[in-house]
Every structure is written in C-alpha cells, then in structure tokens.
Write the structure tokens for this entry.
Amino acid sequence: MKLRELAAGEYQLEGSVSAADAAAIRDEVDVVLARELTDPDTVHVFDLGAVVDGNSLVIALMMGWLRQAQRHEKRIRYRAVPARLYELIEFYGLDGVLPVLDPLDAT
C-alpha cells in the first residue's frame, strides 16, 4: 500500500496491504498526522478508493490512525471506502466509530 498526497490535508491510499508493509504505512500516516499544523477546524481526508483487497488489517490501520489523530487533536475522515471493506466495518460494528464520509457502492 502506498500513501500519496492529493492536496493539502488530502491523501490517497492505494494498493493492497500485507502484514509485512502494514507497519511502514502506519508509521507514514502517523508522521503526517504528527507534523501537520492545522487549525482545529481542518479535517484530514484519507481516500481509500484505490485500496485493493481491503481486509481487517486495513480496518486496524484505520482505527490506529483515528487514535493517532485524536492524540494530536486533529480530525480525520475516510472517503471512498470500498464496499467490501465497508461491509467488514459494519460487521465489526465500527460504522459508528470510524468517520467514513461516503462508502463506495457495491454495484
């Protein structure tokens, strides 16, 4: 999985994630959240529309990034969450916890 900056405060995650590269992508997002100085109304958006093979590992990363953002008093949102990944989020009961803007339709 790779992280690409789209615009100020907007990032796209693309590719598939494996246990081998999960720590690296987690750390990369943690650095982004720790370094960016923003006013409290700024929302950091992570687009997941290009994520392949979304699984519980991706959900664990999303939860970690949410906690990291809260530690740094920042707000984040997840955009374009693939339908299959969003189904897992719902299955785990995290749809009320993870700030998803617009899950992609399964159709």
